[in-house]
Amino acid sequence: MAKLNHIEISREDAIRQYRFQANMNAPKPPSRDRKIHGVQLKNELSEAINSIKKSRMNAGVKSENLLVLEVISDAMSPTILETMLRKFNLYLVEEIDIINTNNTKLVIQFENKDVLNAFNYERKLWENDDENPATLTYAQRRDLFNCIETIRSVSRQDRIGARLRKYMDNPSLFPEGLFVVNIDVWFNGDRSTIMETEAQLRQALGTQGSKLLGDLFEIPSLLLGRASVNEFTLNALLDLDIIASVELPYSNVVTEPYELYKWDYEPIIQNELDSSAPLATILDSGIFTGNPLLSDIVVAEEDFDHTENTTADLNGHGTGVAGIVAYGDFTVGMKSKVFKPLVRLCNGKIMHNDNGNPVFSIDKRPEQTIKEAIEYFYKEYGCRVFNLSAGDSDHLYCGGRQFAWAEMLDQLSRDLDIVIIVSAGNVADPNIVEFSSRDELLEKCRDQLFYPEHRLIDPATSALSITVGAITRFDEPEAIPNRSGRISVGKKDYMSVFTRIGKGVNKAIKPELVDYGGNFAVTQFMRGQTRWLKTDQKLLEPTLHNGNDKIFKGWCGTSFSAPHVTHIAARIERALQEQIKEKPSANLIRAILVNSARCTDEMLSWAEASKDVFHKGKNNPKQERRLRLIGFGKANDSLLYSDDNHVTLFAEDSLELRSFHLYKIPVPKEFLKVKAEKSIAISLAYNPITRLSRKDYLTNNLWFEVFRKIDERDLILYKAKKKSGEDSEEDLENLPDENKAAFLPGYRDLSKSTLQQRIWRKGPLGGSDLFWDENEPYIYVLVTGKERFKYAEQEAPQDYALAITFSYGSRDDIELYNRLRQNVRIKERHKVRERTQVKR
Question: Model-level pTM?
């Protein structure tokens, strides 16, 4: 089949300003009794200041700078919030909704006591109904203090991490003497304050052995550190107002169980890779380069863990991940004994072996180790695709603010313009359900994925990384004579019983993709008593072994689903570079990658037949459940290039958030009439600024809608009408149905995700819904967006990439490539664009 370059297209020129509606349902400030409420706020401010002063005095801290207060607001609009932050030069370190109320909790950092006094002075003017302007105008003062329900110092309980809380509830668990804790410190982005913050922490830790372990590690909203403490100094930290949280170190990365494959044969290795071949970095427990399938394809190695003093993999986890990244699917090679690597590897060792588990060093936060490794291989070897199969299973995402580890990955993704693939995480010991039939067992294992213990973990919630869940490849367990029977808990392409599912931050689609990661079975060790069998060698995902005695090893876990996607991402990156003669953006790589993803009919029906017993809405759409379970499906390598049956159009551009871009896409009549399965997939990827402190997290959202039976003039008239009035995100949805094309899911289901895919699918006789023009039908793709909160850097347009793939499944030659190329607006690249790191 022909190997053809993808077609780069341009948008239409007829674009005018697009104005969004002020939210008519935005909260309005309540009316309060100024005297009564003013005195209340005065007393609360005084109590909060005295509490901070006392806790700092007890901790040996004398500074009156960097004061952190908690403000509970009722109906504070973004405009009022931004006015408060700007006028008093405050820093918002956290903004979250309070569950089961209409209130919002704001954690705000005041630069010093003088600023706090100015704030209190405005409160006094409001209390006395003084109309004279000061820092605020009379109206600004009225709106602000009417919205503030209460002010207090940050609660000690809010600072106790999930793992630490177990120890606090049972003091007998505390070790004797000194022990290590992770500390997260509020940070306003001003690097000049870091030394003062470190000095405050050192004062609080005293001189009796407790100490900071190294300098604080900076991310946009927090300073991350580690400290050696005893029970007394732990309590001093928990009482200190500048502390966001104190937690015990990350637990061991759970190793997915495995059993060695017992295949004894000599592999045939066909290594044709050269210096221009795809490249990916493995961030894991190292790589065993003594394995003959890896010995010649690892181009760089570095140890960032510094525990074992070697880049070799003494655990096996990293080698297993590396094998899949390099070779992709081993099952084909195992039949022929021919193995051909397609991706070169960089070995970034970030963990070491500890009693069979890959773990991070106790001397350094995982975030810091990972950041150093990514920046090193990006700078020294130009690597732009990274695999991270690790996570913190104690930190479940239950809604609300983003995790610090995930935010760090988002910052790196945007600043370096790289693609990071992250595993969704595993539940080591899922509940074993009671069942009366094989079908009931499969259904219950699927439905319990909606249970709270299967939520995503840090950093799988990363908004700009690609998160991967696990599905099963094999469904027939091994039959061993004289052993108890075994029952697989997943058929081929069903969700693995141990995988974690979404949603992500702000209800984003997570995981976006799924791939093969192994399968569990149940067995009986006594009549009627079942247990998991996690090492059935016929159910494991095959990859490579980190020893000289054997070559292959089988594993289970999302750790081994993620590298399947990394393998494809690295190949897409290099194929795009070959086609456009420059490094493709991370947005374009992500858009093409997710554009390739598909769900089989069996995957769709199985996921959509699920039941979520925790759903509280009036209805529980089957599509919503499917997206939480398997995202957009399983990616494949069909879109490295276009060919006779798969033709991909793509565009890269930058969008002013209060405008839209329009793309006119031909739909050849021959494509609509061909008697074959056919589809049009459209994907969008963008990389907004992220802020952990904000409840929305993403500074803005983009989305797209697809129209039919409408020309540019009609669309521009529609837009001009909006310009003079008010509109909202729902306006596109409110257009007449006959104007829209049936691309699923709807754009509102995906608009909170930085990676989106919508598909039009038809059978051999389908396609008439787009056949509205006898000369040449078209569809129109409209890309637009909206800011979530105001931020200085959002004045710059938002970069995005769009991918549109036409596919059909027959041998009929309908000249699809030529027909599309002749009728789209071709974009010519005249020079190589320089992609530089964003300065913060």
Answer: 0.90
